Hints:
4 helices; 15% strand; HECT-type E3 ubiquitin transferase; 110 residues; E3_ubiq-protein_ligase; alpha/beta
Amino acid sequence: IHESKTYVFVEDQKEHTNYNGYKKDDPQISGRYSIVGSMSVEQRNVLLFFWTSIKCLPVKGFGRLDSKLHIYRTLDSYDCLPSSHTCFYHLCFPPYLSMDVMQNCLNIIT
């Protein structure tokens, strides 16, 4: 059951996210979803709060949020932490060069 809930969470997030400076099949995006899929529910809620200032997802998922989520490619160094603009549901995501660096940076904020 846990794996299917994680799958639904990640797939629902993909469906309700726009990408700016990235394509949905870029390694930074697919890697991010892989990492998010392996997070605990608590970590995913912390990431959601970091991104949107919403403490928990509506019962019917991301589609019930006020607007779509947005992931923006930043010009920051590849080892910087992500940042966000919570009012607009914008996640500013550096172009990480490796999954390890990405994982470490996401772990710091979650």
